[in-house]
Amino acid sequence: MKRTAIVAILGACALGTTALAAVGITTLPTGWKIQGPEGAVATVGTLPTGVVVSRDGSQVFELESGHQKPALRVLDATTLKEIRSVPLSGAFGAPLRDPNGDGVWVSVAGTFQDAIAHVDTATGLVDKTVSLPIPFYPVAIARAPNGLIAVAGDLANRVAFVEPSLGIANATYDVGHHPAALVWTPNGRLYVADRGSNTVDVVGTRPNHIVVGSHPDALATDGKHVYVAVSDD
């Protein structure tokens, strides 16, 4: 019973490919209680870093970045059974779905291979790759209202701007230390969380640094406000 509970809890955190039965409440050694998930549970490879749902809600695209061959998995959203898996060496972060389709852009990081890759989730083929400056180490991708894609480079302390239709990175912008997250607001303004400091950059404005808590690493917006998660405050 203990082994089943542990597997189910890990599956709930990861989303995955092997469906498991839901479990009851598990008491941890600390005394904390965890209630098992009510729906399907499954396991995937190591270090799942992001998921996005298809336009019609029928599939889930899950990206994993661990030592067991990084990959993008296409899962059935109801059962979490695997439909296909696409090996992606160096994949990292969360996939960015196309605005008018179910293809996704994925960060590809590593020695001499910094890029973003576009995956056709219907076929499992990588149909486009955009190279980035080296060293860069892309960790986050976000799309502007006009379709321009911004890519955060953890090692470069810069953001690259990619025009998807051209398939090139046509500009870069210096930001703070170790940019970790990006979000565009409806007015086309880009916010960048600098994980290595205590600031959020606002690209294209002066002054462009907003002081927040230590190590900001996630951003979200409701169109009127930008919300910042800080990991060490």
Quick description:
6% of the residues lie in helices and 47% in strands. The protein has one helix spanning 2-14, and strands at residues 25-27, 33-35, 48-53, 59-64, 71-76, 82-87, 91-97, 104-108, 115-120, 125-131, 138-143, 149-153, 158-163, 168-174, 179-184, 190-194, 199-203, 209-211, 216-221, 226-230.
Per-chain topology:
Elements: H1 2-14, E1 25-27, E2 33-35, E3 48-53, E4 59-64, E5 71-76, E6 82-87, E7 91-97, E8 104-108, E9 115-120, E10 125-131, E11 138-143, E12 149-153, E13 158-163, E14 168-174, E15 179-184, E16 190-194, E17 199-203, E18 209-211, E19 216-221, E20 226-230
Antiparallel strand pairs: 1-2, 3-4, 4-5, 5-6, 7-8, 8-9, 9-10, 11-12, 12-13, 13-14, 15-16, 16-17, 17-18, 19-20
Key features?
four-stranded antiparallel β-sheet, mainly beta, 233 residues
Notes on the structure:
There is one protein chain. The protein is mainly beta and 233 residues long. The chain is 6% helix and 47% strand. The chain is built from one helix and 20 strands. It has one helix at 2-14; strands spanning 25-27, 33-35, 48-53, 59-64, 71-76, 82-87, 91-97, 104-108, 115-120, 125-131, 138-143, 149-153, 158-163, 168-174, 179-184, 190-194, 199-203, 209-211, 216-221, 226-230. β8 and β9 form a beta hairpin. The chain starts with a helix and ends with a strand.
Mean pLDDT, as a whole number? 87
Terminal Cα span: 38 Å
With strands numbered from the N-terminus, the spatial order across the biggest sheet is 3-4-5-6
Q: How much is the radius of gyration in Å?
A: 19 Å
Distinct helical segment count: 1
Decide which structural class fits the backbone: mainly beta
Q: Low-confidence spans: pLDDT under 50, at least 5 residues?
A: 1-18
Which H/E pattern describes the elements?
Answer: HEEEEEEEEEEEEEEEEEEEE
| Basic shape | globular
